[in-house]
Amino acid sequence: MNTYEPVIGLEVHVQLATKSKIFCACSTKFGSEPNANTCPICMGLPGTLPVLNEQALRLAMKVGLALNTTIAKRIKFDRKNYFYPDLPKAYQISQYDMPVCAHGGLTIQPESSGGITKQIGITRAHLEEDAGKLLHEGVKDGSWVDYNRAGIPLLEIVSEPDIRSPEEAYDYLTRLKAVLLYLEVSDCNMEEGSLRCDANVSLRPKGESQFGTKVEIKNLNSFKAVQKALQYEIERQTEALEQGEKIAQETRLWNDMQGKTISMRSKEHAHDYRYFPEPDLVPFTVTEKEIEAVRRALPELPQARKERFVKNFGLSDYDASVLVNDKVLGEYFENCVKEGANAKLACNWIQTDLLGALNERCLSFDQNPITPKHLAGMLALIENNTISGKIGKDVLPLMIDEKKTADQIVKEKNLVQVTDTKLLEDIAERVIAANPNPVEQYKSGKTQAIGFLVGQIMKETKGKANPKIVNEILQKKLS
Amino acid sequence: MSEKFNIDSLADLARIRLKKEEKAKLTNDLSKILGYVEALGQLNLEGIEPTTHVAKLENVFRADEVKPALVREEVLKHSPHREGNFFKVPKVIDQA
Amino acid sequence: MTNPEPLTIQAAARFIQGSSEKARTVAEALKKRVDQLDKSINAYIQFQLPKTFEIKQGPLAGVPISVKDNLCTHGWETTCGSKVLKGFIPPYDATVIRKLKEAGAVIVGKCNMDEFAFGSSNESSAFGPVKNPWDLTRVPGGSSGGSAAAVSSGEAIAALGSDTGGSIRQPASFCSVVGLKPTYGRVSRYGLVAFGSSLDQIGPITKTVEDAALLLQVMAGHDPLDSTSAQEPVPHYTEKLSKQVNGLKIGLAKEHFAAGLDPDVEKAIRQAAKTYQDLGAKIVDISLPHSRFAVHVYYIVATAEASSNLGRYDGVRYGLRVPSSNLTEMYIDTRDQGFGAEAKRRILLGTFVLSAGYYDAYYLRGLKARTFFRRDFEEAFKQVDVILTPTAPTPPFKLGEKTGDPLAMYLSDLYTIPANLAGNPAISIPGGFTNRDLPIGIQLIGKPFDEATLLSTAYAFEQATDFHKKKPRI
What we know:
The structure holds 3 protein chains of 3 kinds. Helices cover 32% and strands 8% of the residues of chain B. By secondary structure, chain B is α+β, with helices and mostly antiparallel strands. A two-stranded antiparallel sheet of chain B has the order 2-3. Chain C has 2 domains: 9-243 and 396-469, Amidase signature (AS) enzymes, CATH 3.90.1300.10; 291-371, no CATH class. By secondary structure, chain C is an alpha/beta fold. In chain C, strand 2 (64-68), helix 3 and strand 3 form a beta-alpha-beta unit. Classes of the chains: A alpha+beta, B alpha+beta, C alpha/beta. Chains in contact: A-B, A-C, B-C. At the A-C interface, loops of A face helix 9 and helix 10 of C.
């Protein structure tokens, strides 16, 4: 067991968030009627010609810089020739040997790594046009073609085969997605196809430096699917190798329902894409000045934000990591702090209570009705002892359900913490008198018995007593 | 020369069907043409940049603006096989 | 207005004077001539007058213009001379068609052509060969053979063609008309069905140099829809047109007088050089050392691009589909029945030169050798203003003479190809006749974007000779 080492590389296709397609003026809007977002150019009608959307190149450069790649000074496009009904021109305009970006990397830190980071190389990222979509289900005697997606700008980001486990693959994708969302270059919506991933995986005996035969896995519809498919494929290949079988170089499709990969019937036609320079597009040059301008305009990226959260707010590396992996979550946290919340308190409350409460209600973070100001307000009530943390845990869900501020809820439900020492002393005396046994135990050294007495006082005050004051009173009275 | 290319695999790549008599003729033609083209071997091409474009142009862009073309109906109307707003093709089998 | 045969654009515009009624008169006269002649010449795939004549004002107000059938014309079936595009009706106008219409022109016909412009004789058209109006047993040249034959026979006032390796100039030469291939990028290619995208240019085929200048004026200029269209300003070609060639340096390349050149053609070129000398131009001996490799480079580059450009004719979206329950069968049946022999030949050749293992030895080598053509011209144009060459090595040949030997057919473009490989503008004008009255064209090649000098040089010759006035007896 475990004598084989997996070698994994990922190819991610990201839809760049332009308004119009990469080579024509059709809309990129998702969910339009079939073939509504088409024109003679993206349908490949005879005589039509492509013209590059400037924004597509700009967005690609942003990604390239964020992934520490080198932006090419000279860029060209090439034709990749093959026949398929979703490919209107029988060639895809792509980039073969002069991609926009090359030689970069992304730092990963999988949960189980114990905080150890690892660099995953980025081989290249290139611009290309998407193909249309084929529909099979419910079509009698054939397939339907919808060219709305044909010509959607894509950036294909190819990793080095540096990934060694499904977990690393998952972490790479999560972090890559975070970077893309930070850059606002894509909505990264996997259901709508704006982020797609293919995985290459091979096994080799541990210690071996040569790569084994690689298998390409397609039809991966979520990051979890990538992880599961890789897991499955590693097990399948391990078993095969242990039985002395050879791994076939092939493309396999992940079937999420069955939880396994299935060999794609080997195509009848050999692949020879006959790449050659696209004569209809002129070359593109990028100056150092232009690259610098894009670099200067880059927003703060997850890694930098994490380091800042640790440094400025004293968060643990792990907590900071969780907050920054989701751009919106990190921004929410920071806004709470801006509204006066204690950073560590805010971090804990957001990560556990807020996310938990939203989760229970099947709400995404986008649907969170509590503004940073209101969460900061609630946390302030805890900090200034108006309510206890325990009451806070009841207030927070009410803020979501009743869409009210913590102040309103505390007043309406009369949840203000009892800090009146005189009142609490009276209750304490009654509780002591009524519970001779625990009192006796406490006095004989079983100090944990005080918990029962505190609980009784909390019960009497419907949880509103300040637990710290209650503790102090009891200790004094029982000493 | 003719051993250089496999006429069947070229025809397959280009989705061209060759009838028997066509195949013999085209094999012969291609051999002749490629034999003729072979003369380029006489040129010393070392250090010569390939010419892919003669237009001395660079950086030709369009702005990211949407202009609906509204030609769907016109194109579908003349399509060799439409079904609703789709183009219809024989069942595509080598896909998931 | 009974015979449109001698009618130039200039003359037609003068007659029409912006009047829709007179425009109709001209168009109807033209239709009558087409009805009479086209059964024997076959220059048109379609000829159709508009239902109503409400003409736009402009330099071409009301002038009927015919266009090669590879130019997308909104609402007109555009076949490229191929069965595979049967029923393809573009939902848009090519940029040149839009510009012609905006200048007032009335599009009246789509001219026959070699299938997808693959040919030098117009015999590869799916709509039958075009006959040369000067001798109906001979070819009109190709691939814009329909356009040239129509203009020559008076079945058109003027026409548009396209030129990838000589497809405007060689038929112009064979039919004794004027054919101009502008600098690559001078005229937008948007809407021209692509053959060799890095070589294709649209240009006029006319009865006079003046008409060619006028049409170029209307068509030239930057087009945001064509990334390769030049941003150079457009000079005023018609105003600049002059017959003054005094002091002009005209080059004659020694490589152009090698074996294979018909003696009658050589005689015409030498005579043309003398005519220019008499007009005050200076004849300079130059060298274009790579000339003999033109066909080699061309058939690599052009077929590679063509094989890719023709992939889209797959029966899915438009044109012909041969039904099948199997996708691959549908593809290959459609392409089998849709494409003729020459198209298949070029697709296979282009597929081969790009294929894995052969790319470097063929395609890349072709691209590198292409660089020499540009350099040769750059060197030559340091010494001269214009280069004078034969347009074609021979006068028009017999129908069927070269159909069995593709290589012999390809060699008829030997003199025209270099201007496409390098992107330079070139024009063919009537330059004489054989003793059997077969036309001989002379070609002038200019510096990139210097169509003005090219046109003036051509104009000077035309005005000094009578060749353009001679019409075929049909």
